[in-house]
């Protein structure tokens, strides 16, 4: 099982164990009802990869494709959540982009907290978005060797929450983009930017504090190679190689379609 890196000597402004444990209550509820789930989005960035210290009120959870309706019903029946209209959701890393849930993730389910009015409340998600893990991000909850554990430092009740390491999360995001190149060709959609920012912050080991990370293609080549060597799929290596070299044309919808035609 992958272990997560330490960032010695860097002031990350990490959230407390108590805060992280409280924020993940919905995942523990799903697990208690037999629904395996994967931590995703900003919570994964904050609590695992430490690439940002800016938690936001929304939460993203990946569940098996055939369990998404059941997961939604469980959360509605055991917590203060009800169906909500998909809207604009803060980006995965808490920087300065948003995306339209309905446009990007039409098969996902959005739930809103019935009473919580503060969208930035740190320990209770104001909204939860349930995504199908396999069809969107090619992640199988049964393939546990691809994931890391939150225990320690979190209490043992979080042991079964699956937490993707950096390269696995990157592979999942790349898979979504590669399967839907035209769907992402819109100003509201920022998943390409999420990958760039995640890689930049991870390699530089800094918290955001509202600043944009240094573009990854400007980092030393040996630093870039360290992340390329971790990737396990040809598509993700191709995507990041072009991103790190600044080859924007290859990552257009036309460039992605051309790559897929040449590599069926």
Order of strands across the main sheet:
1-2-7-6-3
Q: How many individual domains?
A: 1
Mean pLDDT: 76
Q: Number of DSSP helices?
A: 11
Write a concise synopsis of the structure shown.
With about 260 residues, this protein is α+β, with helices and mostly antiparallel strands. It has 11 helices and 7 strands.
What does this entry look like structurally?
The chain is an alpha+beta fold and 264 residues long. It has one domain (17-262). Helices cover 38% and strands 11% of the residues. The protein is built from 11 helices and 7 strands. It has helices spanning 17-23, 25-32, 41-49, 68-78, 101-104, 133-137, 166-179, 191-204, 221-228, 234-244, 253-262, and strands at residues 38-40, 58-63, 81-83, 88-90, 98-100, 109-113, 127-132. The chain has a 5-stranded mixed beta sheet with strand order 1-2-7-6-3. A hairpin with a 7-residue loop joins strand 4 (88-90) and strand 5. Helix 7 runs antiparallel to helix 8 (191-204). The longest helix is centred in the middle third of the chain and has 14 residues, at 166-179. The model is unreliable at 1-13, 90-97 and 206-220 (pLDDT under 50).
Topology:
Elements lengths: L16 H7 L1 H8 L5 E3 H9 L8 E6 L4 H11 L2 E3 L4 E3 L7 E3 H4 L4 E5 L13 E6 H5 L28 H14 L11 H14 L16 H8 L5 H11 L8 H10 L2
Helix pairs in contact: 7-8
Task: Pick out its properties.
single chain, 264 residues, alpha+beta, five-stranded mixed beta sheet, two-stranded antiparallel sheet, 11 helices, 7 strands, 38% helix, globular, disordered N terminus
């Amino acid at each position: 099982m992958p272990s997560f890196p330490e960032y010695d000597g860097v002031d990350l402004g990490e959230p407390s164990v108590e805060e992280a444990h409280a924020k993940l209550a919905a995942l523990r509820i799903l697990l208690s009802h037999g629904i395996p789930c994967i931590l995703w989005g900003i919570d994964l960035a904050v609590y695992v990869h430490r690439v940002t210290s800016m938690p936001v009120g929304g939460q993203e959870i990946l569940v098996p494709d055939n369990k998404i309706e059941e997961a939604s019903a469980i959360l509605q029946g055991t917590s203060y959540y009800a169906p909500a209209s998909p809207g604009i959701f803060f980006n995965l890393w808490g920087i300065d982009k948003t995306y339209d849930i309905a446009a990007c993730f039409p098969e996902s389910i959005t739930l809103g907290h019935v009473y919580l009015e503060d969208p930035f409340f740190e320990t209770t998600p104001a909204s939860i978005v349930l995504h199908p893990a396999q069809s969107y991000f090619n992640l199988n909850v049964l393939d546990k060797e691809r994931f890391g554990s939150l225990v320690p430092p979190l209490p043992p009740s979080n042991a079964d929450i699956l937490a993707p390491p950096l390269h696995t999360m990157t592979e999942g995001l790349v898979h979504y983009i590669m399967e839907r190149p035209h769907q992402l060709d819109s100003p509201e959609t920022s998943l390409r930017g999420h990958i760039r920012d995640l890689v930049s912050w991870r390699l530089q080991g800094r918290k955001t504090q509202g600043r944009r990370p240094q573009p990854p293609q400007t980092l030393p080549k040996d630093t870039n190679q360290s992340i390329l060597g971790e990737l396990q799929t040809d598509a993700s290596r191709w995507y990041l190689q072009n991103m790190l070299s600044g080859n924007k044309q290859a990552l257009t919808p036309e460039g992605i379609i051309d790559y897929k035609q040449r590599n069926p």
